[in-house]
User: Fold these one by one.
Assistant:
Number 1:
Amino acid sequence: MDNKIAAVKMRNITKRFGPVLANDKVWLDIYRGEILALLGENGSGKTTLMNMLSGIYFPDEGEISIDGKEVVIRSPKDAFDLGIGMIHQHFKLVDVLTAAENIVLGLEGKLDLKAAKEKIRGICDAYGFEVDPDQKIYDMSVSQKQTVEIVKVLYRGADILILDEPTAVLTPQETDKLFAVLRNMRDDGKAVVIITHKMHEVEALSDRVAILRHGQFIGDMPTRDTNAQEMTNMMVGHAVTLNIDRPEPVDPKPRIEVKNLTVRSIDGILKLEDVSFTANSGEILGIAGISGCGQKELLEAIAGLQPVESGSIQYIEDDGSREELIGKNPLSIAEMGVSLSFVPEDRLGMGLVANMDLSDNMMLRSFRKGRSIFTDRKTPRQLALDVVEELEVRTPSVATPVRRLSGGNVQKVLVGREIASAPTVLLTAYAVRGLDINSSYTIYDLINKQKAAGVAVLYVGEDLDVLLELADRILVLCGGKVSGIVPGRGAKKRDVGLMMTKIGGKTDE
Amino acid sequence: MNNKQRSPLFHIAKRSALRWYSAWAIRGGAVLLALVVCGVITSQVTGEDPIAVYKAIFEGSFGSSRKAWVLLQNIAMLLCVSLAVTPAFRMRCWNLGAEGQALAGALAAAACMILLGPKLPNGAVILCMIVTSILAGAIWAGIPAFFKAKWNTNETLFTLMMNYVATQLVSYYCVVWESPKGSGNIGIINPNTQIGWFPSIAGQKYLLNILVVALVCVAMYVYLNYSKHGYEIAVVGESERTARYVGIKVERVIIRTMLLSGAVCGLAGLLLVGSTNHTLTPTLVEGRGFTAVMVSWLAKFNPIWMILTSFLLVFLSRGAGEIATNFGLNSSFGDILTGVILFFIIGSEFFINYEIHFRKSGEKEETSNV
């Protein structure tokens, strides 16, 4: 492998965004017939580096060569002409068109859908994809859409594939399928680069890892010669322990009781059907499920943001008295004295105001306090300073708009604000999505502290490994229904995975 | 190797935050550059001496003390309407109906003067004028706001249409209240009794308007930046979902803010009728409702900066008028110059937000040598 010529050679690549050095003289080699895992914390410059390879950004300095020839990639089209294809985190597909139509979209030459479908089937057979060329995108699951994106890139003749966090939206079974396909592609002599945060995926899939930290290239090595601990230490720059604590719940009491909850979206689609469960104080209730199975609606219904068709959601005080939360808005829930915090999935579109600075975002929860018609700016500013210090938020100052912060720091600001009000119920949706190892562990730690303080935590997660380590009980949703509730200790990943795809999780085998 | 493969000549990158003085240096540079271009155009097209043209522009505003007062009055009125649209704009609610809202206010004020003038004492008439005109402006903005809050109608189109309704309504009443009969105009209202005319301060006819607007300007600045309402407006403008998430009643904020916007427009109409013009015509507001959009945008919705931008726009338009009369040029020529200057000012925002990296010299050889 060592004497092979590199498919891609990146040398001294530097990219600045204003004063931020996103990539600092990065060297990277990508070989054919190999799966390379690109590792690094949030903001370490992985995506930036790959975006320069795929023609989205143009490097300020440095050279790129493909198969030994120096090239200049000015646009995504240049990249395609060189056989480089990137599958982004956010899919770029037209919903109302079929798979085949999306795949040929934008290609020059005569439109011959029949021939195109033939070629698509050829690609699918070669690598083991399952795509129906005539299926409309809006009928597809997330994993099917991702498959279409990959086929699209292959159809255009790419033999250097870059996947940006492809497994973030997939179930374990879908991930296995994707990995099988990627291995087929590698065996076919294609170069595959995968950006990910999940260590067990790196170990399971990749042949080589390359690690970036703060925009600099730290090193690369064959995956078999390293382990998760060493890779994490290289990413973070110091030793990290990779265990999630799970203390026994102390004196759990019912706090939120949901009964026969049914929710329809504005379009009349059934999002939750007859959901019943109890969340206890001092306990983390994990909620697992394929994305879009009603997790968002469930949390928003409890938070008073989602109209409910039928059922009840009761808040139970320590003395056993009950309050109905349905029909209340967030303000009236707070006025009832129920301290409910919510870390929503959409951090910058819902939890925070992207263009406002840290102090103004802290003010979102507290600005009504007091009788004055003017806002109190000192307290939120102090809170912002405290959160920055306690949670080690990396920001130039508390007067920086949160949109300029990296994903992990944005989440720390949001979580910091939500737990500052000493809640009795904490709802979190995908609290660590897109966060690097270090930030993720900070968040797990914060959630565990809330649990220890007697808070009832509802944790919607996508990484089953984490859910199995963190949650005391796991509620599995499948298509808006409760597929089952299992204890977190001793639950099997395979069983939970099956419950996510089928009510009850039983198979005929 | 492949000589055709070259770095692009330049590429564009987003700037990080620019220091305020660098930003204003860029803007100032843009104005200077615009003046130079205007000078070149003037001398090339008309053969006039560009210096003389600049002098005329300046004299249009500061040529005499009367001109200076007119300039200040025009700035005040434009600023008043701009202040009115700003709370709505901060909420990302595009109130393009300031023209109609001010006209509605003016109509109410004129109605009080004409109908109540003979019956009530002067003080009572003025009080009625103040209350009804501010109410009329608020209602004119409140109707589209209600529809937007309830059924999410498009406020841009709705407020725009309300302008035409207001203009037609005023045209109708101009005929109903015409004086003398058959003229189709209202003429000066209560010319002899001067009932409903606002008093002039220190013998200056325009001073009252200027002071009132200055007060509104400061109040609006404080309201938008330091009050709880101002904060709610900002949150709703940035993200309605965030606003709902923290329990802000978005519908209420929309209606409340639009009512405020319309009320200040009504005040502008009141000042125009009661203090300056003492009459009502369908063109009373002179398009300020639309110029105000530009004033507000150029100042990034900051009431204090809006003093500067409204000065700039009034100064330019008065200069353009002066050129037209002094040099016997078509008044369109003045508009061309105004257009050139605005083009440069708005264009300068690009350079404030982005920077351009040029290909370093020598890079070309490096690439082709490989």
Number 2:
Amino acid sequence: MNPLSVVVRTICDVFAWFIGIFGIYIIIHGHLTPGGGFQGGAVVATMMAFLLVSYGGKKTLSFAKTGLLSAMETTGLLVFIGAGLLGITSTLFFNFLAGQGGIFGAAVPIGPNSGVLNSAGTISVMNMAVGLEVIGGLSLIILYMFKGIRLFDNASESGETGHDR
Amino acid sequence: MNWQIHLPALVLAIPLLGAFASPVAGLGGRNVRNGWMIFISITTTAMCLLLLQKVLADGTAVYVMGAENWNLTLPSGLSWPIRIILQVDAFSAFMAVVGSIAALAGAFFSLSFMDKFTGLEKFSALYFLLVTGMLGMQLTGDLFNFFVFLEIASVASFGLIAFWRDRPEAVEASFKYMIVSTLSAMFILIAVGFLYGRYNAVNIAAVARMLHMGYAEKIALVFLVVSLTMKCGTVPMHMWTPDAYAEAPAGVTCLLVGVSQASLYGLFRVCFSLYGASLGSSVIPWTIIVMGVLSMFIGVTMAVIQKEIKRLMAYHSVSQIGYILLALGVGLLALRDPQAMADYGFTAMKGGIFHIINYTMYKGLLFLTAGAVYYAAGSRNLNELGGLASVMPHTTFMFFIAAAAIAGIPPFNGFVSKLLIYQSTFAVYPLLAVVALVTSVLTLASFVKVFQTAFLGPAKKKFANVKEVPGSMLIGMSVLTIVIIALTLFPTWTLSHLVEPAAKALVDQAGYISAVMGGGL
């Protein structure tokens, strides 16, 4: 995949940030608006597809760190199950942060209101964990699918190790 | 209030933690990764055993995820449950124990078997995800969650079946399994949608309480029966089984046998606990019986002609699933008639449920021994193998135990459950028992063939350097061998302490409903 013209690359430079911020907005507002960790994470991961299309495979692969993306994935998963296990004094996945004050536990006023962002307790934590996991996972999937295309271009690229018969 | 009330949740949380932490354990190198895999498997099995003990002592356990209290099934006076509820009766706990023992054996076996391959932290993550999916299907009390756990198990299986991704056959098997699983998962989703549309609830107990047989319920039932029999590989929807079982690494195949039992569990949970007395006519029981008979006979006749050892065993698992379907179908047939239930129905159910544990243990062991033969001799083709008994004595011994058990040779556990099935199905229709007997004879014939060609005979020059497999594989196989020998030595104890409570729990629809819904309304 070759890089596209300078027009496309400039537009990518500008809009990639908006995509990232919009995705993070969806993740953080998961409990108030439609969407959540998975949907927001998927939006952020399209940034990787965007870069791949506009800058071409060589450049994208040179700065995309698969180790970092894997680490994001694992961290997200561990935070998710950890947040579930911390509630086990009541039940598994008990929302022990809700209504406790602090940044995750603001009380929600009774009656119609526009929603309180920092009120959801562990639900917010889990949304962020899932978001982190999906950003890492989907970006990796996009990168690996791209590498899969290249396998057919250049068969010697195949670094198959150990999966012998 | 002790920690044991959290057991249903812990049974799911521990393998899930095992899966999520596997990449971290993988950073520590080979020993840390293997240690983590063994630690999680043993802990999960121990939790399942404790759960079974608790359920047998205290009756059905419920667990409400994320509630203030574990038994808050109907919060603030609501008339139907809203949260995710795990509901574990004796049958669920029994199935969880069976599945977790298969998972433990598969994990031990995989340590050495997979040692020369890369990507093992992903293997262990997928393995525990599959365990979580299987146990979740067995413990959940909620139809939609059943679908979710089924998807978790399916997606993990796709990855594991195609783990040897440079084998075209493995990728093909995984793709076939993916299509079948996705189709059946969609069927289940449609069925859950029908029931949710009618009753505004997805909790099995809540739906069962309100259920009146109408068109929507009939459509949902057909979708559920078709998809779940498809997932456990009954004729005529068995085409994915030989491919998937033969191409997955042996430790995974052992676990997949346990996972197919989870689909079987879902089928009987739906038939007995969800529909139960309101099933009405005997169409569904007879459908299950006919599918069982077809699976038994077609599975075994296909198995006799196979030359590849794992494919042969995979066709046998189609035929053994048939026994279980036949037995529990007869139980379902007798459900509405207390006299029939006392005469033959309950015996059939005991036979079927006993056959579930027997089948999982000996079939898992057979797949593991096939994997061991493949690992040591490098071939799965019966025409090439021969004379392995002298170089692999332990594997040969364990294969002999498993083959004798599956063929139903008298002292072994397979004989006990098959005898119960023969006796009870004869009372319904003698031909059923005849087909079951013929199937058993053909099973014996094909395992005599395998034993004769692969293990007996003169030692071949080609296999002169073959050695017995490494210790961890032997441990994995001995776990199952010990269970088989224990079941063989104490069939009466097993029947009265494990199988009978499970069968009673399955028949007792009112008890299943009241555990969640209370006296309520």
